[in-house]
């Protein structure tokens, strides 16, 4: 059986009308599928409203107790439930999950090296039996960027990593395709030129693109997650816009080893 894992980034979640279109494309996708969502931008906005400062290091949010409360409310509550309700309206039988729900994703606190990230977890286990059970019953899991340690502690975990870890775990039993959807059509050669999509990137090209400063910021950890997934038996990995799910010949970046 084939399973498609779709991760949607923060810029697709922020705007209600964009999110609706994203979810229509997702709902139309045939076969077993899992949606993973971020929401980092929204968490930053809500933190600001509450007077909580945001600090990011290497694309990861430093998550103190107050920030953990915000991300739990925003990712686990507002964003996850809004997505599930919209998918239900599109006849997609969605079930919203944090990593604690059905023990879906376990993690340990990220070890302190140069920085203490606080309540940020590195994934240690994905409950693939549970995901299989849901998928075999035509239930579509909707996963947010929250994991847990099994002792009652929730952790913030980057959504790209949640998506690749689920993909890797399911690759043991399924043919898995991983789609990273964001606001651009793919990895761009010139960030201002929306159509300058680099259609194929392997590890060698990736290293060259880093040297040329073409790939930077959030794209660096995203691509690391892509290679990590491919190295651990995920069949196909793509980066592109949500249109890559529905339109043939749509520009997108295909990642290979
Ligand atoms: N070459 C590139 N092509 C496209 N985006 C790039 C590139 N280099 C850096 N980026 C940045 O990476 C961002 C995507 O990473 P991130 O914000 O982590 O994604 P997401 O919204 O999916 O969480 C883009 O919004 C863009 O600003
Ligand atoms: C530890 C960590 O940094 N977690 C991320 C999780 C959300 C996320 O990944 O959202 P996007 O996909 O929208 O960026 C964060 O809090 O920003």
Automatic annotation (TrEMBL):
The record marks 7, 222 as: Transition state stabilizer. One of its GO terms (biological process) is L-arginine biosynthetic process via ornithine. Keywords: Amino-acid biosynthesis, Arginine biosynthesis, ATP-binding, Cytoplasm, Kinase, Nucleotide-binding, Transferase. It comes from the Bacteria. Its main location: cytoplasm. Substrate binds at residues 39-40, 61, 156. CDD domains: AAK_NAGK-like (cd04238). Its EC number is 2.7.2.8. The keyword Thylakoid does not apply. GO terms for cellular component: cytoplasm. InterPro entries: AceGlu_kinase-like_sf (IPR036393), AcgluKinase_fam (IPR004662), ArgB (IPR037528), Asp/Glu/Uridylate_kinase (IPR001048). Residues 3-240 form the Aspartate/glutamate/uridylate kinase domain. One of its GO terms (molecular function) is ATP binding. It catalyses: N-acetyl-L-glutamate + ATP = N-acetyl-L-glutamyl 5-phosphate + ADP. The keyword Cytoplasm applies. Belongs to the acetylglutamate kinase family. ArgB subfamily. Catalyzes the ATP-dependent phosphorylation of N-acetyl-L-glutamate. This is Acetylglutamate kinase.
């Amino acid at each position: 059986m084939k399973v498609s894992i779709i991760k949607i980034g923060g810029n697709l979640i922020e705007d209600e009308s964009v999110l609706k279109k994203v979810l229509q494309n997702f709902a139309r996708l045939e076969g077993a599928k899992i949606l993973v969502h971020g929401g980092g931008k929204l968490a930053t906005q809500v933190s600001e409203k509450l007077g909580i400062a945001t600090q990011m290091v290497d694309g990861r949010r430093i998550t103190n107790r107050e920030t953990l409360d915000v991300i739990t409310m925003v990712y686990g509550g507002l964003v996850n439930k809004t997505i599930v309700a919209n998918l239900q309206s599109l006849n997609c039988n969605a079930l919203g999950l944090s990593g604690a729900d059905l023990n879906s994703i376990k993690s340990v606190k990220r070890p302190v090296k140069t920085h203490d990230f606080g309540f940020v977890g590195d994934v240690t286990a994905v409950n693939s039996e549970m995901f299989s059970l849901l998928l075999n019953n035509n239930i579509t899991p909707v996963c947010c960027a929250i994991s847990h340690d099994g002792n009652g502690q929730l952790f913030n975990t980057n959504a790209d990593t949640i998506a690749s870890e689920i993909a890797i775990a399911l690759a043991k039993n399924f043919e898995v395709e991983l789609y990273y959807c964001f606001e651009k059509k793919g990895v761009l050669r010139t960030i201002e030129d929306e159509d300058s999509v680099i259609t194929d990137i392997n590890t060698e090209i990736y290293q060259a693109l880093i040297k040329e400063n073409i790939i930077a910021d959030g794209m660096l950890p995203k691509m690391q997650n892509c290679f990590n997934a491919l190295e651990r038996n995920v069949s196909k990995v793509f980066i592109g816009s949500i249109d890559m799910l529905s339109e043939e010949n749509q520009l997108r970046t295909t990642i290979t080893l």
